[in-house]
Amino acid sequence: MEQLIQYFAGQRRVFELPLAQQGTAFQQQVWNLLMGIPFGKTISYIQLAIQAGDPKSTRAVASANGRNNIAIIVPCHRVIGANGELTGYAGGLPRKRWLLEHERKVAFGVQTLF
Predict the structure, then answer these.
(1) Are strands 43-44 and 79-80 parallel, antiparallel or unpaired?
(2) 42 backbone φψ class: left, alpha, beta (φ>0; ψ -120 to 50)
(3) In the chain, what are the domain boundaries?
(4) pTM for the predicted model, two decimal places
(5) What is the CATH number of domain 24-108?
(6) pLDDT at 89
């Protein structure tokens, strides 16, 4: 809880806690890749699929991303469409937009991203 409070206060960019999310080997791989997306940055689903080893696995990557149960800590909100548009987020696109704008503001002093 303390780390989330720090994140929302703009004092934390990386979470340091043990995670034990249950999923397939592929889901675990995608979730580990999500953890490597830097604070304040975004990547596309196709870029994530390429990192996972198969550029044709975009839908599977998106599905694994959507099955992430530890949002914010495992930053699935940092994945966007190839065209730069916001796409799917279990918490809703307004929350995804807010999280990305929060991170951009903290990281770069930029007010509006989308």
Answers:
(1) parallel
(2) beta
(3) 24-108
(4) 0.91
(5) 1.10.10.10
(6) 87
